[in-house]
Every structure is written in structure tokens, then in C-alpha cells.
Amino acid sequence: MQTLTIDFICSLDGFGSAVGWPGWWGMESPEYLDWLDDAPAKDDPLLMGAKTYRVMSELTAGGEPGTDVLNGIPKYVFSSSLDAPLTWANSTLVDTDAVDYVRRLKEQSDRPLRTIGSIALCRSLLSAGLVDRYRVVIFPVITGASGRDRIFDGYPDVTLELVEARTFDHRTQLLEYIPTVVDGPPGR
């Protein structure tokens, strides 16, 4: 069975995006971009929802630095609002239950799986116990006034075992964990 890694980028205060800020909050350092280019998982299939699909396919079409590599990667897009065929190369529309589909995909895939964005999709996959790794890249910015898409709101309680930590260009942090969904605080 293949592994599933949730991948998020966020501000220090947990926002996945912010109004008026460029992609990566304008802090896509050379070391971070090199890591993205060299990562063994860079070609692993991506899971995403409709909103992420729309945003990322537009960024890729618009030539956003570092996004062109996504064109050749298999993408599974979970949506009831998009219509087939999807225009972004190597994209498969899935309009059935995401949890059931991903459970089968983990069993059948010849490669590990990962997500990109897609807060609600990731929340449901984590709650269903399908997530093996949780990787967060934290950018050194607080976007309290302009932040959008709080990543962790509505999540279950989760304990995290740190398995990797890295700093890019002395400012951006990568943290990778093994997640365990728990029923609530310890000792309840």
C-alpha cells in the first residue's frame, strides 16, 4: 500500500493564502525552489479539490515560477462542480466519494501520493485515517489582516511525531510529521 502525504505551505499564523500577497508570499527562496526541483516526491501523483485545481492550473498557465513541473504529474481532482474533460494536462476528474477513491488509490498506485492545497479534502482524508505524513512549509510572515484559508480550522485533534525538519535560506521552515488523530486532549 502506498503512502499519502499532506503538503501545505502557510504563513506563521496558519493561513494558506493572503489577499494582495504574491505566491509563496514573495519568499520563494532559491534553496526552497531547489528542494522542490530535487525532491524525490516531485513526480508523485497529486490529489486536489476544485478550488486548488482552478488556482494552480491558472498559475501554471500564467508561468508562475516553479509551477511548470506540475504539468507532467498525474493529478486527481475531486469535484462535483467541474466538468470533464479537464484542460490541465494529466488531470483526472473524480466525482465520487474522495475517501473511498483515495483508499483504493493507495492500494493500487505504483507511486506514493501527496496533496497540494485542498484544505477540506485533506481534512476528510486525515479524519478517515488515510494520511501517513503531514508536511508543512512555514513562511516567515504573519497575515492576520489579509490572510485567507485558515488551514487547521475544523480539523480533528491530532498529535504529530516530528520526522524531518529543515530551514531554507535561514527563514523558511519545513516540518514533516507522522500524524495520529486522537479523540481529544490526553487524560479526558
TrEMBL record:
Transmembrane segments: none annotated. InterPro entries: DHFR-like_dom_sf, RibDG_C, Riboflavin_Biosynth_HTPR. Residues 3-173 form the Bacterial bifunctional deaminase-reductase C-terminal domain. Pfam families: RibD_C. It comes from the Bacteria. This is Bacterial bifunctional deaminase-reductase C-terminal domain-containing protein. It comes from Microbacterium murale.
